[in-house]
Amino acid sequence: MLKQTILRLERCATASRRGVYEKMKMMPLFGNYFRSMNRTQTSYSVPKERVDCIVIGAGVVGIAIARALALKGREVLVIESAPTFGTATSSRNSEVIHAGIYYPRDSFKATFCVRGRDMLYEYCSKHGIPHKRIGKLIVATQPSEIPKLDDILNRGIHNGVDGLKMIEGVEAMKMEPELQCVKAILSPLTGIIDSHSLMLSLVGEAENHGATFTYNSTVVGGQLEGNEICLHITETNRLNDQNGTSILHPEFVLIPKLVVNSAGLSAPALAKRFTCLQSGVIPPSYYARGCYFTLSNTKATPFRRLIYPLPEDGGIGVHVTLDLNGQVKFGPDVEWIEGVDDISSFQNKFDYSVTASRAGRYYQEIRKYYPNLKDGSLEPGYSGIRPKLSGPHQPPVDFVIQGEEIHGVPGLINLFGIESPGLTSSMAIADFISTRFLG
Ligand SMILES: Cc1cc2nc3c(=O)[nH]c(=O)nc-3n(C[C@H](O)[C@H](O)[C@H](O)COP(=O)(O)OP(=O)(O)OC[C@H]3O[C@@H](n4cnc5c(N)ncnc54)[C@H](O)[C@@H]3O)c2cc1C
């Protein structure tokens, strides 16, 4: 993979800048891809090419889909606006392999999480991806929370999550001496994963099966011509002077047989720029930032398992996460934020800052289950933004996967609202798409 990247970079550096098509060929990966393809004359004043499958967005979900399509023998081109893969939500999460407990029965979230979890464990073991099945405790810190804990347990059991067990507070506190709780659900199948290693492995495998990844390239819109979807693409750098109201002229147009809009936070905004889509099919989108604080000043790691309080509106509570290096993180909270304009969202220009002043609420929340948390031990970490389809105080909404049968556009698949457990579900979503839409 490194060798390919170097070759591409060399090609990029030595290519002449003679025109848009030349430019396209010298953009990372387009050179390779277009060598095997025929150009077609079109009514556009920009070059236009036919391709087999396009995946928009190289987050963990897009990458998993690209791999699944490539393994089925399809020619795959992944178009990513950032300079490399996995720089958006896929590198700003808890890195937890969820068991599949919280989600409504038979929802995509429940089904994909349970299946994706098993696929992920199997993939990690086979490919040497660092991960650990460390288990988790969901805790009630006062008796009034116990009925909610019962509901969560029942939901998990209905979702087919094996090994769940309600335990008394004393037993949980024996397992985790720093913990304070009155009752807990033990989830032995929950784990942690090095998500970057996962993505690296999936990218490598996709490339080995012929998929091509192009970076610094942004899909800025699309339209139907006859029965075919035409995607408008430009170099990401060209967007620097634009804003959400700009009309964007593509540098080139691609006509795929199949295109998967897996643009994460930007997927709804991008769909709005597909003139062939009725606005009614694009769900309203909301953004909920979640910040993490890391634990410092504490000699030993206080917990061996993940500790989760009861879920809150918009998230699953400020929990304890451990990474594979033993670093303890607390988060994410839920802060509803305004989105940026669509062009800025394609460039991932969201506000990811974590201000130290937020720590106050964290101390309060964490001490409900970890009373020995010392003053001054929380340091601002990082944040991620949830691509949500429901707003404050609204019930959670399932993942949305739309094919032609919903929006009427042949060959287009939209993925909306792929928030948590999207990392856990990634391989199951990919399998679903490559089976359902390719047969
Ligand atoms: C705070 C937080 C904690 C989480 N914790 C967990 C967890 O512990 N376990 C779990 O299973 N899930 C978790 N998730 C969810 C998980 O991280 C996401 O579901 C998953 O990463 C989504 O991957 P994606 O590929 O859909 O999106 P992304 O990773 O956002 O990828 C989308 C890609 O599309 C690119 N893009 C955007 N617009 C364009 C365009 N116009 N043209 C080309 N490219 C474009 C972006 O640059 C980006 O690389 C968490 C999420 C958050 C926010």
From TrEMBL:
<keyword id="KW-0274">FAD</keyword>
<keyword id="KW-0285">Flavoprotein</keyword>
<keyword id="KW-0560">Oxidoreductase</keyword>
<feature type="domain" description="FAD dependent oxidoreductase">
    <location>
        <begin position="52"/>
        <end position="433"/>
    </location>
</feature>
<dbReference type="InterPro" id="IPR006076">
    <property type="entry name" value="FAD-dep_OxRdtase"/>
</dbReference>
<protein>
    <recommendedName>
        <fullName>L-2-hydroxyglutarate dehydrogenase, mitochondrial</fullName>
        <ecNumber>1.1.99.2</ecNumber>
    </recommendedName>
</protein>
<dbReference type="GO" id="GO:0047545">
    <property type="term" value="F:(S)-2-hydroxyglutarate dehydrogenase activity"/>
</dbReference>
<dbReference type="InterPro" id="IPR036188">
    <property type="entry name" value="FAD/NAD-bd_sf"/>
</dbReference>
<comment type="similarity">
    <text>Belongs to the L2HGDH family.</text>
</comment>
<dbReference type="Pfam" id="PF01266">
    <property type="entry name" value="DAO"/>
</dbReference>
